[in-house]
Structure to design on (679 residues):
């Protein structure tokens, strides 16, 4: 997923009240917001950015059923085929006694699977280095990065951001590639979303 | 979240003082970046000393066998299993706070959840030591897991509650660890981005996993937390239920009761909250976090203590009633003579348990006492002692008198190495906790920021007006529209 270098115009906001209208106006004006980096989850910002709902919980459900199947399959194979143990003459296929382990494995598979999927999708791992547009994005600022296309006038965009309430506006160049993630393709354009 | 959710003015603020986002970072991350206080060094030294004593006791267990413990013919489960159940129970409060209170949308969990989750993990590590070293021949430990082998293949018994316990406790540990660490990642990134020294840049750079705070990542993070909370909730109930099955599925009078699962779960939460109180009352004082762990938080936890304490008390009385009503002479004897009779060898432990767990928490019906920090600290110790005795009573008083009077055991008291092992787990627990408090954000920074504008003292003051004017307008015009 190698790519060249891309230019971004970066602005910081310190209040959600200013950020939300700014997001809307920037998108309305036809600019492509690469991402907004925030120190904590802001509910509704994903929708404001036109990002689709995550389906990580569906993955969790699939991993869970995999865990259920593994536990039931493995235990019944062991107790009926591999090593049928006579426990006081009770049935070999003793389903009620297997419920606890089946439940535990369901939870275990789902939790591990979901967490790994989360790390994979967000490219989170030890020793991963990413481009940080602003160090204060993990402290107290909401940092908006707007991607520049060949047609973008940087000066105009900076002025626009300034009028939208952004502070500390600057231009940064960053390597494109795996760190960008794939959601830039899944983010709808504003005109598609409102339908004009 | 911040502007989109409003909180009633009647509720007291969860964050005291005049705070903004940056101030929260300073207050919570600040102590990580300075040298620890003298109190920290003293506490850490004592913990490590206890840990070393514990390691030596365990070394002797392996070298000489568990014969060095004072276990005897009928008391095959003594202090070690008591300690196992006690530690596991303590862990449960962490999951309750982080998972169940998340599902119930309780804002006050944000101040205490990180420390409580850490407590869960360390408590489960301590608990795990007891069954492992109780095996005596500890190199046989891997045989508790089912894996293809050359012994037949010979498999473990999947119908046995002891094996269920292996799965329950190891799953519980893994899921708690994932939940805790996934919550820590954004906060570790905050520490990383503030780091000045080379060591901190490297260390937090590695442990923060390259977190950037991207909107999409937060969206997935929220979803992950919610589903993990949903998974942990039945999990935590199942773990102590299964621990209680270790007893309840046997035919020992005093153990063979159907009330055990809910009784154990309530007891676990009860003791866990007491331990959270013990830890957090020290932490808020030593690390100066009174603005984040407020009297309101302490009061909320005391309410849980009085509730679960009453459930536990109700369970004790039900158990006693059923022993009498059930007309099983052996069971009634176990309750009447081994427990209730104060002149029997262990009668004192039953009444100590009754006093600590049933009578004493009732004082928390008084709001004045619920909001008294010193008194709460004292009570949390009482409850911890009481809950330890609950497990001791269940285990020892049920088995020291067998069906066969000739094998009734003489008085059981622990040897110095049994005691050493127990103290050693305290050392392990507090050593881990001190290291955690020094190097990791002990309060969930991002979560506190998310509730600041609804529950911060300074923001709450302006709330009524905001609700009427701009926030509502903002919500209707900007946010709902964007959905």
């Amino acid at each position: 997923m190698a790519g060249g270098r891309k230019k971004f115009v970066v602005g910081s906001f310190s209040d959600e009240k200013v950020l939300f209208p700014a997001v809307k106006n920037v998108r309305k004006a036809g600019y492509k917001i690469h991402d907004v980096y925030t120190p904590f989850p802001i509910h509704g910002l994903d929708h404001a950015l036109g990002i689709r709902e995550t389906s990580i919980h569906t993955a969790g459900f699939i991993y869970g059923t995999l865990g259920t199947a593994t536990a039931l399959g493995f235990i019944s194979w062991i107790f009926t085929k591999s090593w049928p143990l006579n426990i006081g003459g009770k049935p070999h296929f003793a389903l009620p006694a297997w419920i606890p382990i089946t439940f535990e494995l369901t939870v275990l598979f789902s939790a591990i699977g979901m967490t790994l999927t989360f790390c994979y999708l967000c490219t989170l791992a030890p020793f991963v280095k990413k481009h940080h547009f602003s160090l204060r994005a993990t402290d107290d600022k909401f940092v908006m990065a707007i991607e520049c296309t060949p047609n973008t006038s940087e000066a105009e965009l900076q002025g626009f951001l300034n009028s939208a309430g952004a502070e500390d506006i600057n231009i940064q160049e960053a390597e494109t590639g795996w760190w960008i993630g794939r959601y830039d393709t899944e983010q709808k354009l504003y005109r598609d979303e409102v339908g004009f | 979240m911040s502007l989109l959710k409003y909180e009633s003015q009647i509720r007291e603020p969860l964050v005291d003082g005049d705070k903004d986002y940056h101030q929260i970072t300073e207050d919570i991350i600040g102590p990580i970046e300075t040298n620890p206080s003298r109190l920290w060094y003293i506490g850490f030294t004592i913990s490590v000393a206890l840990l070393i004593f514990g390691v030596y006791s365990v070394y002797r267990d392996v070298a000489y066998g568990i014969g060095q413990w004072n276990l005897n013919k009928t008391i095959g489960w003594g202090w070690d299993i008591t300690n196992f159940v006690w530690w596991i129970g303590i862990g449960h409060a962490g999951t309750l706070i982080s998972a169940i209170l998340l599902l119930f949308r309780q804002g006050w969990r944000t101040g205490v959840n990180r420390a409580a989750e850490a407590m869960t993990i360390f408590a489960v590590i301590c608990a795990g030591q007891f069954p492992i070293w109780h095996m005596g021949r500890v190199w046989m430990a891997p045989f508790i897991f089912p894996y293809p082998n050359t012994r037949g293949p010979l498999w473990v018994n999947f119908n046995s509650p002891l094996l269920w316990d292996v799965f329950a406790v190891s799953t519980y540990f893994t899921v708690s660890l994932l939940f805790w660490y996934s919550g820590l990642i954004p906060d570790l990134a905050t520490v990383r981005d503030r780091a000045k020294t080379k060591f901190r840049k490297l260390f937090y750079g590695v442990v923060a996993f390259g977190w950037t705070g991207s909107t999409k990542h937060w969206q997935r993070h929220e979803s992950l937390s919610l589903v993990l909370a949903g998974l942990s909730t039945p999990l935590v109930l199942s773990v102590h239920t299964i621990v209680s099955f270790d007893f309840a599925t046997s035919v020992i009078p005093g153990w063979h009761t159907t009330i055990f699962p809910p009784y154990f779960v309530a007891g676990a939460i009860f003791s866990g909250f007491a331990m959270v109180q013990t830890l957090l009352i020290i932490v808020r004082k030593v690390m100066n976090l009174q603005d984040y762990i407020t009297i309101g938080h302490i009061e909320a936890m005391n309410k849980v203590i009085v509730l679960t304490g009453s459930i536990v008390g109700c369970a004790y009385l039900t158990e006693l009633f059923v022993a009498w009503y059930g007309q099983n002479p052996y069971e009634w004897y176990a309750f009447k003579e081994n427990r209730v009779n104060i002149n029997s060898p262990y009668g004192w432990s039953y009444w100590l348990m009754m006093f600590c767990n049933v009578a004493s928490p009732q004082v928390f019906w008084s709001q004045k006492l619920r909001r008294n920090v010193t008194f709460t600290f004292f009570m949390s110790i009482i409850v911890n002692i009481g809950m330890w005795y609950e497990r001791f009573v269940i285990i020892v008083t049920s088995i020291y008198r067998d069906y066969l009077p000739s094998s009734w055991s003489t008085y059981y008291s622990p040897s110095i190495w049994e005691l050493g092992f127990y103290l050693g787990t305290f050392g392990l627990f507090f050593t881990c906790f001190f290291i955690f408090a020094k190097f990791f954000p002990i309060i969930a920074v991002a979560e506190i920021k998310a509730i600041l504008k609804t529950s911060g003292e300074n923001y709450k003051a302006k709330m009524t007006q905001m609700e009427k004017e701009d926030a509502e307008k903002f919500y209707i015009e900007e946010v709902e529209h964007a959905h």
Notes: Chain B touches chain A through 75 residues (CB under 8 Å). The radius of gyration of chain B is 24 Å. Chain B has 18 helices and no strands. Residues 36 and 220 of chain B are 35 Å apart (CA to CA).
